Amino acid sequence: MDSTNAYDVIVVGGGVIGCAVARELAPDHDVLVLEAGSAGGEASPKASGLMAIVADLPEYPAAARHALEFFKSYDGTGQFEFTSRSAIHLVTAEEESWGREHAATKAAQGFDVTYLTAAEIENRYPGALVLDQFVGGVEFSQSGWLDPYTYTMTLKSEAEDEGVRYETGTEVTDIVIEDGSVTGVRVEGATIAADHVVCATGWRTRELLSEFVEVPVRPFRWQTVNLEVGREFGEEFPICWDRQSRMYWRPEHNGDLHVGGGTYFVEDSGDVRSTITESFRNAVATTIGERVQNIEDARFKSEDCCPTGDAATPDDHPIIDAPDGAPDGLVVAITGPVGGIMCSPFVSTAVRSIVTEETAPFPVEPFSLDRFEDLSAEFECDYVTGLQAPQR
Ligand SMILES: Cc1cc2nc3c(=O)[nH]c(=O)nc-3n(C[C@H](O)[C@H](O)[C@H](O)COP(=O)(O)OP(=O)(O)OC[C@H]3O[C@@H](n4cnc5c(N)ncnc54)[C@H](O)[C@@H]3O)c2cc1C
Predict the structure, then answer these.
(1) Of the candidates 306, 301, 297, the residue with the CA atom closest to the CA atom of residue 254
(2) CA-closest residue to ligand 1 atom 49
(3) Residue identifier of the C-alpha nearest atom 4 of ligand 1
(4) Per UniProt, which keywords does this protein have (predicted)?
């Protein structure tokens, strides 16, 4: 490890957020990314890659629009491919008024969102879904998915082309402060100097920064399975989200059905896991055939989850801030449970605006830490544990 260089910015964490931040800053900053594990991050490579609900960030339509536009324009960069596909949030009779209102609100914000009745869904997506339990759905036409590992590696490779250095297998043990300002980080007994330190460290941010600032974040797990099915999914088969089962699903390019959800808090921080829970396996087995047509012969092919966890925040939204009271030059970049892949374009743009003091193309203040009165990690959030997935 070279401890003599001084950098404009050290990014701690080489997941999708760290890589997106490094790429944004690369053209006009000397940037070093320090990653404790391997390139691509911990939660990031495991993701389903959906950006189905980015348009749902209720208060932040401009940030959501920024993310949507980024993915479309980034399609074709290096190995990165964005699959455009509509997404439907299925709604039950009790949820119908929410669904209609939500679609109208999003449409008024300029998103391509429509409320469809069950008959309209069947008409538009014939042979796709079993709709007995639903009266309709909110359709987002601007959605899609991507392969999160390829995406992260494309961001990394672009950052490296612009001169960013990556050190993997390198844990930052301390942030170094002098006279109230960040001067660098400590790794393996060495100190590396920098004017800014961006913590893209997910749920671990709380512990890393505990001396300087309290960050309300706690780990939770997503779970996914891939099902091998006998049927084919056409080019139109939609991404779906179902609040009743707390599951989402989409086709894979190889013909499998990818199913995710089953979120739960990790009570033992640092616990590492690679298998899904029995309850999620059972939920998939009993539910998915009641949602997707002609998959009676489905069989479990593979499963995955966050090894240690993704970062939950008390209100589900990102924390992107140089917090008041924290040392100058310290920036926090945490996505919250709405999904770091889909949030990465605006998280990284917001971080850039904080570091450079440029104006971001959307309001950054809504992501500041001081929106929380309680900074403890004792919070619950519906997004993770609710009996139903949240109404977004
Ligand atoms: C199964 C699953 C499905 C998902 N589905 C979606 C989806 O469909 N859409 C979506 O948008 N999101 C989804 N997500 C969530 C998304 O993957 C995460 O929100 C996102 O990857 C978080 O990115 P990150 O860079 O903050 O975290 P990570 O990828 O976890 O990266 C943080 C990195 O920081 C490093 N680090 C921590 N502390 C230190 C330290 N002290 N020194 C050095 N390095 C450190 C860690 O090693 C880690 O690599 C899913 C996640 C999973 C697991």
Answers:
(1) 301
(2) 41
(3) 47
(4) Oxidoreductase
Q: Do both 225 and 303 map to the same domain?
A: yes
Ligand 1, pocket residues at CB < 6 Å? 12-18, 34-37, 41-44, 46-50, 171-172, 200-202, 204, 208, 222, 224, 260, 304-306, 310, 335, 339-342
Please say which residue of 281, 310, 339 terminates a domain.
310
* Calpha distance 367→336 (Å, rounded): 11
Q: Above 70 in pLDDT, residue 188?
A: yes
Residues whose CB is less than 8 angstroms from the CB of residue 80 and which lie 6 or more positions away in sequence, other chains included: 74, 146, 150, 151, 154
pLDDT of residue 392: 36
**Domain co-membership, 371 together with 295:** no
Mean pLDDT of 274-279: 95
Q: Whose CA is nearest to atom 12 of ligand 1?
A: 339
Tokens of 145: 């998915």
Ligand 1 centroid vs 164 CA: distance in angstroms? 20
> Given a cut of 50, is residue 185 above it in pLDDT?
yes
**Are 158 and 299 contained in the same domain?**
no
Q: 85-123, pLDDT tens digit by residue?
A: 999 999 999 999 999 999 999 899 889 999 999 999 999
Is 171 domain-assigned? Answer: yes
In angstroms, what is the span from residue 45 Cα to ligand 1's centroid?
Answer: 8
Q: Domain range for residue 358?
A: 6-46+149-217+313-385
The one-character DSSP state at 243 is: T
Helical H segments across the chain, by residue range: 16-25, 61-74, 96-108, 118-124, 148-161, 205-208, 278-287, 340-356, 382-385
Q: How far is ligand 1, taken at its centre, from the CA of residue 290, in Å?
A: 31
Q: Which residue out of 1, 11, 33, 35 has the highest number of ligand 1 atoms within 8 Å of its CB and is therefore the one to mutate?
A: 35
Structural domain contains residue 289 = yes
Ligand 1 center from residue 46 Cα (angstroms): 8
Relative to the CA of 248, which ligand 1 atom is closest? 8
Query: Considering 278, 294, 310, which residue would you say is the last residue of a domain?
Result: 310
Q: What is the pLDDT of residues 346-369, one digit of tens each?
A: 999 999 999 999 999 999 999 999
Same domain, 237 and 374: no
Q: Does residue 62 sit within a domain?
A: no
Q: For residue 77, is it within any domain?
A: no
DSSP letter (8 states) at residue 27? G
